[in-house]
Every structure is written in C-alpha cells, then in structure tokens.
Write a structure and sequence with these properties.
The structure holds two protein chains of two kinds.
Chain A: E1 9-13, E2 18-23, E3 32-38, E4 45-50, E5 55-56, E6 61-64, E7 70-75, E8 84-91, E9 103-108
Parallel strand pairs in A: 1-9
Antiparallel strand pairs in A: 2-7, 3-4, 3-8, 5-6, 6-7, 8-9
Chain B: E1 4-7, E2 10-13, E3 19-25, E4 31-37, E5 43-51, E6 54-57, E7 64-66, E8 76-78, E9 87-94, E10 102-104, E11 108-112
Parallel strand pairs in B: 2-11
Antiparallel strand pairs in B: 1-3, 3-8, 4-5, 4-9, 5-6, 7-8, 9-10, 9-11
Classes of the chains: A mainly beta, B mainly beta.
Amino acid sequence: DAKTTQPNSMESNEEEPVHLPCNHSTISGTDYIHWYRQLPSQGPEYVIHGLTSNVNNRMASLAIAEDRKSSTLILHRATLRDAAVYYCILSYRDDKIIFGKGTRLHILP
Amino acid sequence: NAGVTQTPKFQVLKTGQSMTLQCAQDMNHEYMSWYRQDPGMGLRLIHYSVGAGITDQGEVPNGYNVSRSTTEDFPLRLLSAAPSQTSVYFCASRQDRAPYEQYFGPGTRLTVT
C-alpha cells in the first residue's frame, strides 16, 4: 500500500495559489518526500523533494510539517498547464517506490 | 544524455502471445523499475531492480518476468499476454543515493486483444 494519502481531486482558479496536501504519518527518519506530476498522456515528472526543511524551486514550493507527518505542495500561481495528477511519495535507498492514486488538479479559467 | 528510453511506443498483441518491452537508461542509475497504469488509475509497481543481477517483485508481478544483466537495460517480458494486461507501461530509473529522484520513460501503450 502507498505510504501517503492525498485528496482524490482539487480545483483551483487560474492565477491563484494552490495548496496540495499529503499525509505520511508513518514516515521514517530517512525517507525523502517527493512530489511528481503527470500531465495528460505523459509519464510522471519530478516536481520537488524535501527531507526536513521547506524547499523552493522554479516550479513549486514544498512545506514540510515540523513532525514530518504531512507536507504541502504549493503552486504559487496556477496556470492551465498545471492541470495534472500530482503524486506525493516517500523514497529511500532500496525501498519499493509505491505510488498512490494522487490528486487530480483541475484549473478553472 | 537520452535519459530513460522505452521501445516500442505502441504494441498490439493477441491473447497468448509473448513479447518484451525494452527499457534503457544512460545515467548509470542502479535502481530501475517498471510500472503499469490502467486508464484513470495511478501507477502500480510491477518489478524493480536495485542493481545488475538483482530483481524483486512489486505490487502486481504476476504474468511478468524481468532480468537485469547490465546496469543500462531492464527489459520486461510478458509471458502469455492477456486482455487484463492492456495498459500503459512506464519504466523509471534513479540513483541509489539521496535524494532518490526518479526519471521516467515516455511509456509503452500495450493493447491485448
């Protein structure tokens, strides 16, 4: 079973910020938190990762709770091109990497 | 670098036929894996490998075989295709050191009639 839980779907208006939540209550100290997204008819692509501290890159920000049991992917200004399925997964060295169902993000023009 | 490549892009098989989906990566990644994605669903792990000569089962391994004779290649064999194996297959690879980011291939769309 996936080690993370995410809402099935979310909606947001174009040009507004989007906060995508993820719960990972059984996270271990060595697990990295990864976010991927899958655009229609494409393979998943890496978005961002973190271990303990909040992270920013050109695509998004990742906010990690102090106890590491949850995280939030933040898209600062959603565009129609951000409509995709977003997956939150935990990753460590030789572990199986199990994807859950992810969150389908709909962007309203 | 080409990254992760998969061939073929599309394939139609008849029930009972066998075939091999090819996956190669040129990033010298130790970890490689195969996923399938059915319409409207998430990815499910079929098999994975943590290095040449080492493979292990994922969530849905039945009906599939893998081998890893080189670091670069990780083929997926369908032994006797069934309509339930109609799906999109993705291969992925990653380093065995932090942060363990995965790179995915473009996928193979397989239809079994």
